[in-house]
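Course exercise 7: structure representation. Students receive a sequence record and must write out the corresponding structure in token form. The form below is the worked example handed out in class, using Lon protease (819 residues). Read each field label carefully; the graders check that inputs and outputs are placed in the correct fields and that the protein name is recorded exactly as given.

STUDENT ID: A-19
EXERCISE PROTEIN: Lon protease
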Amino acid sequence: MSDQDYDRDNEHLDWLTDDEPDAQQDDTSDSEEHRSDGEKVNSLVPASDMLPERIYLLPIHNRPFFPAQVQPLVINRERWEETMRRVGNTPHHTIGVAFVGEQGVESLDHEGFPAIGTAVKVHKLQSEDQQIQFIAQGVKRFKIQRWLSKEPPYLVEVSYPKEPVDAENEETRAYAMAIINGIKELLPINPLYGEELKHYLNRFSPHEPGPLTDFAAAITSAKGPELQDVLATLSVAERMHKVLPLLRKEIDVAQLQSEISEQVNAQMQERQREFFLREQLKVIQRELGISKDDRENDVDTFRNRLESLVVPERVQARIDDELNKLSVLETGSPEYGTTRNYLDWLTSLPWGVTSQDKLDLAHAREVLDRDHDGLKDVKERIIEFLAEGTFKGDVGGSIVLLVGPPGVGKTSIGRSIAQALGREFYRFSVGGMRDEAEIKGHRRTYVGAMPGKLVQAFKEVEVENPVIMLDEIDKLGQSFQGDPASALLEVLDPEQNVDFLDHYLDVRMDLSKVLFICTANTLDSIPGPLLDRMEQIRLSGYIAEEKLQIAKHHLWPKLLKRDNLPKKRINLTDAALKQVIDGYAREAGVRQLEKQLHRIVRKAAVRLLEEQLETVKISVKNLEEFLGAPLFRKEKVLKGEGVVTGLAWTSMGGATLPIEAGKVHALDRGFKLTGKLGDVMKESANIAYSYTLGHLQEYGADADFFDSAFVHLHVPEGATPKDGPSAGVTMTTALLSLAKHQAIDRPLAMTGELTLTGQVLPVGGIREKIIAARRSDIFEVILPEANKRDYEELPDYLKEGMTVHFANRYRDVANVVFT
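STUDENT ANSWER:
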């Protein structure tokens, strides 16, 4: 559309700007009016003080329009522009307004229009953007007699029904007075109605009950259908019966709103009054010397904290300087808040406060035995550590590293050490830590700066010689924000931590009295310089007997106590507990075992409540009702030509590792590896293949076997990554068994690395591997000769019933396997 076309269209809407129109008409309004279908009908030519017999309709959705109302209406220009243009071309400028409720514009139909509506005069029509706005003056009710156009613009033939009323009737006058009194009562309660009510009261009198009733209904907040019912009631007496309850309801709502507002204002005034009185009291007390201001209170608080502390001179000098600065700063300044926080940290630390160590070995043994079953070698190592501290006078400055798979009790061991010593215990995890500021604190110049974790630990434990546990130290991160592992060097090095410097405090602290205990699952990811400063104590996995004792003495009682269940209500037999360990929780630690026991407790609690039982017994027969089918079955050791059981170490503990060698075909020579092996394990396989190829005749095999054999070496569970330098002996034995056509006819496991010359090299994780062999009911094992000392240091209960062969060269292995 061009600009000229747009201006020309707007001319049709600029037909009414004053309250009294000039009755401008186009050629269609002089003699005739057109229907939407083009058929001519008789023209609407009423006198200026009369209402037309045919009017255009305008639907409204929110609430009906009453004859006594005068208010602006806003309508959609695109849909109703033609209707308003035609109204403008009439001499009377009257349009019918009808309430259609929630009907949408698209679904609006002529049948949705009510029979009764309100004829309104249109004043001051304006058009802006997509809207048309005008002031509507309600004139009179109309009733639709006949539809002349059922599509927009809607055109209807109407009549104006009489509204029967007896103004002199006593009941009518009483209702009229009640409505007037209600309007007057509403006026002071709700100021929103003030101007409108005053305007009305100036125009109408109590002797006009019809308009009075309509106006009273219009000013209520009743819903649309209720108001339409009032509009459709022609009898003024009946209409007054309906309007008066609506008006009373509006008065009640307005009174409630007024009461709520008064209560809120009263509360606000009371709080303001209290605030001013308190401020006046502070000024009066300050003038009389009765009280001090906030700044003096802060200074006195910090000085009082220092009275019971033994603060080093260099720290005391810094505190004095900061107190002098605080005494001259304004309390509202940002620097005052920064200085106050700094002094709060400095004076909250336990300068010179230590706890007395209990270096009693008998007490330490009692605590360790009470809290832990098994771990005999670990307990002995801790007792040795404490005995050494008895002669030194303290155990401070030491760094203990507890290494073992998850769930073996590393964190609880650290807590038990603190209890045995009678020291405070503080633990925080450094796993995933990437910012060295968490160790050494932020600079004070940064917004939101805080001291490091160590300073926070001192503030919480309130002594200088606590036991601090650094959990998951093998999972330290590294990023552009720094290297926390390097920051820990200053913390853990006994030569450096005497003068530890936190960036936030910026004063030297003595960490030499702290006993640091670190935990890790593996040593591979711990930096060498950091590992060099620690004393390692290994916690291997538990065998079934140890798990049984741990479950009976610790896990099961703890779960019953936590759920407040008497021990006699749930009876778990020892045989069922063994089945839980063997069939559902074979991991190195006891975390999975605790989860399965908790599952039993939950299901037993449900039975106690639903079946009204006194006791629930869990035995081997009904265990599957609580835990389902076992996750692990009794595994048979794989047997056959080319099948050998190896022993492996993982971060989760020891494990058996079967290795299979098979001849695929005899068409061509070749060697294939599968099982998701790492680079080190692939090298071991190639060395084993080369060594076997070169020594077939020496071990009684066909020297030409591999010349035409395509051999496939597989390590089962191909989805699990495997790597490590301890499978060379096992792979060589599998290949030699295949070449000799001789299977291993007994449960036998082995571990060790092999060189090209047949040397058997030592490996790690001997304890974990022996535990894994016992867990699989393998009691004959081949170990490297160099690991003989590691085996001899194992506790007797692990060596009981074991037959161990030590090999220096592969010839020793072959003699054990194939004789």
